[in-house]
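Most newcomers find our protein records easier to grasp once they have seen one. Read left to right, the backbone structure tokens trace the chain's path through space. Once this layout is familiar, the rest of the handout is easier to follow. The record below serves as our worked example for the rest of this section:


***
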Amino acid sequence: MTPSIEEKYRNILNNIEELYYEVDLAGNLTFLNGSMSRILGYSEDELIGMNNRQYMNLGTAKRVYETFNQVYQTGIATKAFDWELIRKDGTIRVLETSVSLMLDAEGRPVGFFGIARDITERKQMEEQEKRLQRAKDKALHQLSHELRTPLSIALGVIRILKKKLQISRPHPEEEELWVLLENHIQRLLEIQQKANHIIQYSQTPDQISAGQKPDQHTNRLEKSSEAPRQQPPSLQDWVEKMNQTLPAEPNGLRRMNLFTMVQQVVARTKENARHRDILFLTGGEENLCLLTDPGIIEDIFKGLLKNAIENTPDGGKIRITMETNGERGFLKVKDFGIGIMEENQKNIFGGLFAAREMEHYSSKKPYDFYAGGKGLDLFKIKTCAQHFGFDISVKSRRCVYLPTDHDICPGDISRCPHCKEIRDCYASGGSTFSVSFPM
């Protein structure tokens, strides 16, 4: 005997993995398939006529009412996530559910229907990943703070011994060894500080949505230590608030003039890098303003500018531009330096990555040519940018005269055997880092 159309579709509904339900306007079940009966642990007879509040907690029932009411008012179907249903045995299942308005023959609302998917295991996996991430963050924080104290002590001892040796007039080779050792200890301290900043801004989505600031997580970890420790730099400690900002906006954001900030940072940077022969060019929209934490965008720009200087030989130039495109603004830092090899560009924001060998820059000072490689500096910038809603990208072309990382630039265009004129160097390669942000 051929089954009726109603029996045919009932068989289909009872054999699909998804839950199908129909409820009246009061939320009482009027129809369901076998999957819903299996998930909730009730028989079909027990569920028919049961109100949704009988298998939901108060919080979920409130969200269900709000969703159903929105669909009723607009007639537009929607999808709701993370509805927790209570099984007959008291255990919880988490569902992803669609809700549509059900109409009678005259087009009048008579109830709701939808399909739901059990995502309990997926949610459990996500929560486990969050717990593992929190544990990893705690371990990394602890390691970062444990490194700081012995490194600081070692650096202090080295400086004391160096002063004593200077009094006794040591051999020049011995003094060079002490300077080299001091520089390496100082670099380790800088790495520790950068790593600490990166950890602070590598938060999970639930931490960010909860409004947790980076230094709150750090302070909790500090308090949990057995011995008292010096508090790590907070967000307010490691960024300088700008002077040209207007009165504070809600949520601690300020409206700032990007062009003014760039001019001030360039002026300070030129003073710090006065031993370098580099031309700085700034241009673009002078009235470009954005609503943000001024210290963050300034810190990102300072990092990109420092990176550009350390990759540009003397006699070179750096161009900074500010512009808008649609609803987004752009801050671009372009150097006419050595550029980045194509295979290295995909790893440039990965952290602990350097485009050159360590011995080429280990004894350098900040802003020196070849002084810092990439590594944690750009990783820190990328992490901070993502945390505050910015996008950062890079376009680069390796210097045609330096095709590999083993080819060394002399650091001065006038000493380059390949460039007869300055413009030859300008045309040979370079990098452009672009920060994009909503207006």
